[in-house]
Structure formats: C-alpha cells, structure tokens
Design goal:
The complex is a heterodimer of chains A (129) and B (555). With 129 residues, chain A is α/β, with parallel strands linked by helices. Chain A is built from five helices and five strands, in the order βαβαβαβαβα. In chain A, α2 runs parallel beside α3. Chain A starts with a strand and ends with a helix. Classes of the chains: A alpha/beta (129), B alpha/beta (555). Chains A and B meet through α1 of A and α1, α2 and α3 of B.
Chain lengths: 129, 555
C-alpha cells in the first residue's frame, strides 16, 4: 500500500484550485494534482494514477459526472473512487451523484481549513462499505 | 511544523487569496451583466448565453463562502434560483423579469460593496507598496562590479526618491532576492565578476524566478554588438553607456516602472436606459478608465464642469431631449468645443448621421456595440483629446505646465484657497549660473539640466502640488494647503537634492544649484501680489550668495 493518498482535483475555476492547493499541499499523507478540465485530467491520468478524484460538478464543456465517466473508462481506472464538489446539495441531488458511483459529496462553498479532514473521513468510510 | 503553526501558515496564504478573489469580483459581476444584456438584445445563441449566465451566478454562490464572502454567496444562490425558475416559466413577461433581475442583481452588488473583507491587516497590494504620496517608489536593485560606481548610482537615485540595494556580483543579488517582492526595477552592469556578458543570463534568471517581469535597465562601459545583443536577449528595457547620466537614468526608471502613468481617461455616459449605461460604464472601467453615468441629460453641464470628461458617450434618443440637441447645448460653451462626443444609437439613417456630424460629433456607433469596438473608439478619442489639450498646456521640453497654464492654475488655486480658508505656498526657483553651463558644456547639456530639475520636481512633490516652467531657467511650484514651515522644508530639501545630483557634461560630472523665493496666500491676496512677493524673495536669495531658499518678508 502506497504511503500517500493520490488526489486529483478537477475544477475550471483557478481561484478554487489555488485554495485547494493551499489547503492540501502541506498534508504529509496526501499527494495532490490539479487540473482545469476533463481533457487535462485524462491526459494526466495516463501517467499518474490517482486514488481519489475530486470533481467539480458544474464546468463548461464536460461536467463532473461526464469527467468521472471518461476517467473510469481509462485502462485500470474502472474502480477509481470519486467525490463530487458542488453547490447543488439537495438530498435528491446528492443521491443522484452517489448513484453515479461517487463515495461522497463535498458542498460548496467549503471551508478550506477543514478540507483535508473531510477528504480523509470520506476515504475511510469508503473502505467500510 | 506543529498543527497550530501549520494552521496559521495556511490562514496567511488564504488571506492573500481572499483579497485576490475580492478584487476580481467586479469582473465576475461584469460578466453577468454582459450575459444579461446580450440576452436582452436577443443576439446570438440564447441557450448558450442563458447557460453562461447561470454558470457565472452559480460559481459565485459556490465559491464566495470559501473566500470569506458567505453572505454574498448566499444571495447569489437566491439569484441563481430566480434564474432557474425564470428558465422554466415561459409565462413570465420580459419587462417584469428584467426588473426583477435588475433589482436582485443591484442588491447583490450592493451587498458585496458593503461586506467587509476578512483580511489580515498587513496584506498590502503590490501596487500600493510601490509608491507613496511623497514619491518613494519601491526598491531598485543595482548590480555593478565596481562598488564605488554602484554606490554612486544608489546615492544619485535616492535624490529622486528611490530606495536602493547595491550588489557587486550576480550571485549575491540573487541570494538577496529570494523570497522578496519589493523590487521595482533592476540596474544591471553587463560585465560582472561572473563574466563579461554575465548580465544577460542574470536577467533571464531573474525573470524566470520572479515569475513576473520587473523592468531591467542595462548599464555598460561597452557599446558593442555582443553586449547590446545580450541585453536584448535578457529583456532589458533600456541600455545606457557609462558614465551614466543620472537624470536620464531617473527618467528612464520612471518610464519603465510607469511610476507616472497616464491618468485614467474619463468618460461621461449619457443614456436613459440605466442597465445599458451601467454596462458600458463597466466595460470601460474594466479597461482602466473612469466612467460616470448620467440618465438625465439636463444635468450634463454641471457634470461636465465637475467631472472634466475626456469623452462623452451619448444616446441619440432620450425622453425630453435628443442627443443632437444636448450636443448643441454643450458646444455653445467655448470650453467644450473640442471635447469628443460619440453618439450611440440604433438609428442608422444617413440623415441622422449627417446631422450628428454637423454639430461636431466625433463618432457614431450602432447598438448593439461590441465591447472591443467601444473601448477602442473611446480610447482613441480620449487620447487624442488629451494630446491636443496638453499641447496647449505643456512646455515641450519638460512636460511641465507652461507659463500661461501655470498662471491660470495659480489663479484658480488662489481662489480655492481663499474659499476654503487654507494657506497656499508659491515658490519660484531659478537655476544659478545657468548661462555658464550652456557656455561650458553646450546647449544640449543645458537642456538636459532643465529636464533633470523638472524630473526631480515631478518625482519629489505631491500629486496635489503643481509644477510649471515659468521661464527659460525659472520654475514655479505651487503647494496648496501648505504652511510656511512645510513649504520651506520641502523647497530646502529640493535645493539640497538638486545640488547633489551629478550632471553629465561630456566625459565629466558637474553640479548645478538653484536659488528660490517662497511667498504665501495669506498674506498675499492676489496672483500679482503673490508673484511679486516670491520674486522679491528670490532676488534676496541671489543677492545673499545663491544656492539658498528665502521666504518673502511680509509672511
């Protein structure tokens, strides 16, 4: 088992990517990469295999769910876990996202100070299922 | 690192990001306005625009809270739900929907303006850090292998208000630069201990490491192809051959650091459709201009006097008065014969256009107007207007106010000073033995001395002070809201600084001084009395031995 959890965060908004980087860069158990679009994420995933995807839902071009599908379609990535990051957090919407195979949803706006803990908690719960 | 320390470091970084997010919020609002106006005009792919509008609002609702603006994010969520409902309800009439959107959107922008930003107190934008009222302008990093030369450059630049740091080789400067962001400019000798052309790679490394481009000026004893080519490759903005003319160097530094930038163009927008006028104002503001919106054309005259617009953007059809009629009223006043007027209209008839040209319209634009077209047209007109006005107002050698403009300005400042019951200081400066400078070194050098003192006055005085060239070697400085003690200190300091500047004449450096006389309102009550008093004090200074400052007797 590798020491660090490999996270791939995909969001078209540069501001949010920078905050996520600040929030997670000093965590010793996490290795983080950031992408601005589905295409960039697919390209990166060819040479760097993430353990957990953090995907913004509403993006221009291919949205979060579509990005998840594309990444899952890559060889060896069929069971990669994903967490959706979204402002849409009605219970029905959360159910919809989980039905796609997500292990959880992080609500926007999120508190950057708590982001690392939140991610760890979701990752631990995944193994319990 | 302990958890507390880690958290503190994270908070600090987040604070900087919050400030950046806040600064960009107006651009997000602009994008929303743009999308809304596009929908209103019914041009292009409406489905695409509708999605874009929704996405922009959704983004704010999803991110504002992360950046310390939770109330703004929540209100944006309300706006987002309104837009979603609107999309689903075709029964909603256009006018009603427009009003509701406008109302909610104004509420949102107003809330943003009111929301205090949750910052750490010591985050200062880099722009602010670079300049202060008195003209201190950020640090100039100097790398010169000859220590004496390097220190001399530093001393001379300090006279012009620059803070400096001197290094004698590339590696010590690079070490010092680590983690700092206070560099305003670099002065680099091409030949350094690391090599004859080491300046070139040094410049490239600096540009790479700092991530943004800080202006660099090369100084060199050589004027040969390889040194100059290296300078170009390194991205230098200027190349100066030693011995360095410090006045010219200071001028170049000001130019490359844009310390004295063009003041923003001022645009007055007259259009009774508020949302459209606000939209134009936003477009122009984003392009760096100052825009003021007026929906009531009857208030144009007061606004023009107060605002001093460089361009007027006017709608052709307004309730109560057409753009043409308003333009005619404006042009009746000789002061506003030349201010550019650009008409906006959906009207495309040739007749209307000719009528507009007949009363001196400068341009005619059809709505809907592409943003870039608007910005280009306004910028071109405003710039031309400024150039024409300044030709009339400025002295060509120095760019300072010329004699006539100076007197006009003096008159209005005295008036203002009397109304507000504050005091005004007026100093007249005259170069000492200037004829000798011209005779010994030639007129081109004499001209450069004039430019150098102008440069010094401009850089060391406050924005509210007025500097003009009164005569051949005579300058005038107007300092509003300044008393005897303050004015005397300022002019005395200028005297000392000017005397210390190394001026270049052929292959040598020489020095020049000035004498000055200062007078005040009160006790002077008129422009003539003020000038006479200052002149008298100047005469005293000359008589007493020159290179000194005297204050008028009756003060």
């Amino acid at each position: 088992m590798s020491e660090k959890l490999r996270l791939l965060y995909v969001d078209d908004e540069a501001d949010i990517r920078e905050v996520v980087e600040i929030a997670l860069e000093d965590e010793p158990d996490l290795e983080l990469r950031l992408c601005a679009s589905c295409a960039a994420a697919v390209e990166l995933a060819k040479t760097w295999r993430p353990d957990l995807l953090l995907l913004d839902v509403m993006m221009p071009g291919l949205d979060g769910p579509a990005t998840f599908a594309q990444l899952r379609a890559l060889p060896g990535m069929a069971s990669v876990a994903a967490v959706f990051v979204t402002a849409k957090v009605q219970p029905s919407e959360i159910d919809q996202l989980k039905a796609l195979g997500a292990i959880g949803v992080i609500a926007k706006p999120f508190d950057p100070m708590c982001l690392a803990e939140h991610i760890r908690a979701l990752w631990k719960e995944r193994h319990v299922e | 690192m302990s958890n507390e320390a880690k958290a503190a470091a994270m908070r600090h970084k987040l604070a900087a990001r919050r400030e950046a997010y806040r600064e960009q919020m107006p651009a997000r609002f602009a994008a929303i306005r743009r999308a809304w106006v596009t929908l209103g005009q019914g041009v292009g792919d409406l489905t695409e625009t509708r999605y874009e509008l929704l996405r922009q609002v959704h983004n704010i609702s999803g991110s504002a809270g992360t950046f310390g603006l939770r109330p703004v994010g929540e209100m944006a969520r309300g706006l987002e739900h309104f837009l979603i409902e609107l999309n689903l309800d075709p029964g909603r009439t256009a006018g009603d929907a427009m009003h509701e959107f406008e109302r909610r959107f104004s509420e949102l922008t107003a809330l943003f303006d009111r929301t205090p930003s949750e910052l750490l107190p010591n985050i200062v934008s880099r722009m602010d850090a670079a300049t202060t009222e008195a003209g201190i302008a950020g640090r100039v990093y100097i790398v010169e292998d000859d220590l004496a030369q390097g220190q001399e450059i530093a001393d001379q630049l300090r006279a012009f208000g620059w803070e400096t740091a001197v290094f004698t080789d590339a590696s010590s400067m690079e070490r010092a630069l680590q983690g700092k962001c206070d560099a305003a400019a670099f002065i680099i000798d091409m030949a350094l201990p690391e090599g004859q052309l080491a300046g070139g790679p040094l410049m490239r490394r600096i540009a790479e490491n700092l991530g943004r481009h800080i202006p660099q000026i090369v100084i060199s004893a050589h004027w040969d192809w390889s040194s100059r080519f290296e300078a170009v490759r390194g991205g230098a903005l200027a190349y100066m051959v030693k011995p360095v003319d410090f006045g010219i160097l200071a001028e170049r530094l000001d130019a490359v650091t844009r310390r004295q930038t063009e003041a923003p163009f001022k645009v007055l927008i007259v259009d009774d459709t508020r949302i459209l006028a606000d939209y134009f104002a936003q477009v122009l503001t984003d392009a760096g201009m100052l825009a003021k919106v007026l929906s009531d054309p009857t208030r144009i005259l007061d606004m023009l006097v107060e605002f001093e617009a460089d361009v007027i953007l006017m709608d052709l059809f307004m309730p109560g008065c057409t753009g043409i009629e308003a333009a005619r009223v404006i042009r009746q006043d000789p002061k506003f014969t030349t201010v550019p007027i650009v008409f906006l209209s959906t009207e495309t008839s040739r007749e209307a256009q000719l009528e507009a040209i007949a009363i001196g319209a400068d341009d005619f634009m059809h709505k809907p107007i592409a943003e870039t077209d608007l910005i280009l047209a306004v910028t071109a007109r405003a710039r031309r207007f400024r150039v024409l006005s300044s030709l009339v107002r400025q002295d060509s050698l120095t760019g300072l106010l010329n004699h006539i403009s100076l007197k006009l300005r003096l008159e209005s400042e005295i008036e203002r000073c009397r109304r507000s019951k504050t005091s005004l200081a007026f100093a007249m400066l005259d170069l000492d033995h200037f004829k000798q400078v011209n005779d010994t070194y030639g007129h081109p050098v004499g001209d450069q001395v004039i430019r150098t003192i102008s440069q010094l006055l401009r850089s060391r005085l406050r924005k509210s002070d007025v500097v003009g060239r009164y005569g051949g070697e005579e300058f005038a400085v107007l300092m509003p809201d300044t008393d005897v003690g303050g004015a005397t200190a300022i002019v005395e300091s200028l005297r000392a600084q000017f005397a210390s500047i190394g001026l270049v004449g052929g292959k040598t450096h020489f020095h020049c001084t000035f004498s000055a006389g200062i007078a005040f309102v009160p006790p002077a009550t008129s422009m003539d009395a003020l000038i006479e008093a200052a002149d008298g004090a100047l005469y005293e200074a000359k008589r007493a031995g020159r290179n000194r400052v005297c204050v008028a007797a009756e003060t």
